[in-house]
Amino acid sequence: MKGYRFRRTRIAVLLVLIVCAVNTLFPILYAISGSFKTLPELSNAGSRLIPNDPTFQNYLDALTEANFFQAFTNSVMVTVSATVIGTIAAAMCGYAFARKMVPGSKLLLVLMGAGIFLGAGTATIYPRYVMAQALEINNLVGVVVLQLAEITLLTTFLVRAYCLDMGEEVEHAAMIDGCGTFGAFWHVGIPSMRPILTTAAVLTFQWSWNSFQVPLVFTLSRPELQTLTVSVFAIKSAGGDGFGQYTILLAGAVMAVLPIVVVYIIAQRYFMDGLTAGALKG
């Protein structure tokens, strides 16, 4: 009887997972399919996944209309900068909070937690832009700074939770041997935090690469600074017709999402280990 119930539970869970997978994958497959269709085929037979006459012209048009290579370069500069700086900052801050090196850490953690929910909304975009303008960083530097202010709060919490579950014996032994606090962090803490730091790097990369609102506002008057997400979105109205550019828009979106897929595939094992461990405690 128990075995029968167990099988029924497994079947129910499997069905739910299949439904979730289809719900997640169908929009992706539809976008890929639509990117190879002509506009008449997309408008008349949009529900068909396999194109009748596949074409690469949409991708060639997207490369031209979206100023793809310049926008791609801007996105790479912004994302790599945010990922490197954000991961280092999360490692140092999370470790310091976990080892109680920060005075008033409880109050700071409460404020940081509030910042996750309150700091990254539409209501704050204008004052953040005004501050960046006053500091003369209303450019890609400002985009990086604001992205770091948003995602590093979350990754710091993840690193802190991971470090709380790490033993401190080896770190203490290293300090006794004359390593010092930073030496123990660098030689013992960093290697032990590799899974969670990979998770933090992937999350920061994804957040920065997909960021749209901040780059849009900061590059409205300077199209040459547009990131790829903003540049692809601009395709929608490039032809003056709301539907007239959708096949090109889908092609641009497919190309824009490829770097995230590649990064996730490369870092998948460490990403899942770090995300699970970082969520278990703290």
Largest sheet: none
- Per DSSP, what share of the residues sits in E-state strands of 2 or more residues? under 5%
Rg: 23 Å
The helicity comes to over 70%
Distance between the termini: 39 Å
**Could you tell me the mean pLDDT?**
81
Given as residue ranges, the uncertain stretches (5+ residues, pLDDT < 50) are 278-282
Number of strands: 0
SSE string, helices as H and strands as E: HHHHHHHHHHHHH
**Number of folding domains?**
2
Molecular structure report:
- The chain has 282 residues and is mostly helical.
- The chain has 2 domains: 1-55; 66-280, MetI-like fold.
- Helix content is 76%, strand content 0%.
- The protein has helices at 2-35, 39-44, 57-65, 68-98, 105-118, 125-134, 140-164, 169-176, 180-192, 194-210, 213-218, 228-234, 246-280.
- Helix 1 (2-35) packs antiparallel against helix 13 (246-280) and helix 12 (228-234) packs antiparallel against helix 13.
- The model is unreliable at 278-282 (pLDDT under 50).
